[in-house]
Design brief:
A hairpin with a 3-residue loop joins strand 9 and strand 10. This protein is 41% helix and 11% strand. Strands 2-1-5-6-10-9 form a 6-stranded mixed sheet. A two-stranded antiparallel ribbon has the order 3-4. InterPro entries: Class_I_gatase-like (IPR029062), DJ-1/PfpI (IPR002818), Homeodomain-like_sf (IPR009057), HTH_AraC (IPR018060), HTH_AraC-typ_CS (IPR018062), INH-QAR (IPR052158). This is Helix-turn-helix domain-containing protein. Keywords: DNA-binding, Transcription, Transcription regulation.
């Protein structure tokens, strides 16, 4: 049976974002061409919805659809004044959220993270939203760790994404998580979009092309990528770039959009994922080859960033699962 996805369209929904889930998930098929997801849109009371873009849309289902969904996607809605002032959901929206099962996966696109936060679904978690509203989000919901520097955050059951194309990224991420890299890559090609952008990538980069290539950190980035298995430090990277730690950190963030150590961690996670997907290396050897040193550290970072253990990730992505894998 296809995985059932319900998209909730609320008043003021952004029309382009409303179509993202159906466009991306409908492109995911098994090798025989059978769709892996079934996407349906609903609204409160099944009523027509006024979009942010000056027209109304008509849907065929009301919020009862949320009860039977495996995944619920909250399409982008700019937070209303009442929500921004009080941090509380309107009663009808709260009633709709109450229909979502405790095991149902929930995804917010862009500023709909405010709705998940007001519903209490993000308490004690890390989350993101559009960078322009991250400060307001953090002030309104102090129990949430707000990360303005990423495209999306996967907490396992609950996911939040940044603005615009980040909605496509989080949908492709879920296809990859559910069915592996090959299926996600094929879906991306059908949609004619980039096959994979990491959630840890910055929402925007201030200086994508350094004005002075001789003072760029790009050579040091490549140097670090060639040495992921080694115990690199921030001081090591700054020394290679012939800069002070402070100068290197400032220039690195300006070019890449994140800190050197966060970038290095993301690269190591990427390396570990590739090895788990494509090799039969034990978890211990994957941890060593990707620079985590030991399986305990690898499991800790996988749990924090992916919501899965390395073995669960390997199984989910159809990679070899040898009986000799270290536990």
């Amino acid at each position: 049976m296809a995985h059932r996805i319900a998209v909730l369209a609320l008043e003021g929904v952004l029309a382009m974002d409303l179509g993202i889930a159906a466009r991306v998930f409908d492109a995911a098929c098994d090798p025989a061409g059978t769709p892996l997801y079934s996407v349906t849109t609903c609204s409160l009371g099944g009523r027509p919805v006024r979009t942010h873009d000056g027209f109304r849309i008509v849907v065929d289902h009301d919020e009862s659809l949320l009860e039977s969904a495996d995944t619920v996607v909250i399409a982008t809605q700019e937070p209303e004044r009442h929500l921004l002032a009080t941090g509380e959901l309107p009663p009808e929206v709260a009633g709709a959220f109450a229909r979502i099962g405790p095991r149902t996966r929930v995804v917010s696109l862009c500023t709909s993270a405010f709705l998940l936060a007001a519903a209490g679904l993000l308490d004690g978690m890390r989350a993101t939203t559009h960078w322009a509203l991250c400060d307001a989000f953090a002030r309104l919901f102090p129990r949430i760790e707000v990360d303005p520097d990423v495209l999306f955050v996967d907490n396992g059951r609950v996911l939040t994404s940044a603005g615009g194309a980040a909605g496509i990224d989080v949908c492709l991420h879920l296809i990859r998580r559910d069915h592996g890299a090959a299926v996600a890559g094929a879906a991306a090609r059908r949609c004619v979009v980039a096959p994979w952008r990491e959630g840890g990538q910055a929402q925007f980069i201030e200086h994508p092309v350094p004005k002075d290539a001789g003072r760029s950190t790009s050579a040091t980035r490549q140097w670090a990528l060639d040495r992921l298995a080694e115990p690199l430090t921030l001081e090591d990277m700054a020394r290679h770039a012939h800069m002070s730690v402070r100068t290197f950190t400032r220039r690195f963030r300006g070019e890449v959009g994140t800190s050197p150590l966060r970038w290095l961690l993301q690269c190591r996670l990427n390396q570990a994922r590739r090895l788990l997907e494509s090799t039969e290396l034990t978890v211990a050897r994957v941890a060593t080859a990707s620079g985590f040193g030991d399986p305990v550290a690898l499991r800790k970072h996988f749990a924090a960033h992916l919501g899965l253990s390395p073995l669960a990730y390997r199984r989910a992505h159809n990679a070899p699962d040898p009986t000799a894998v270290s536990r």
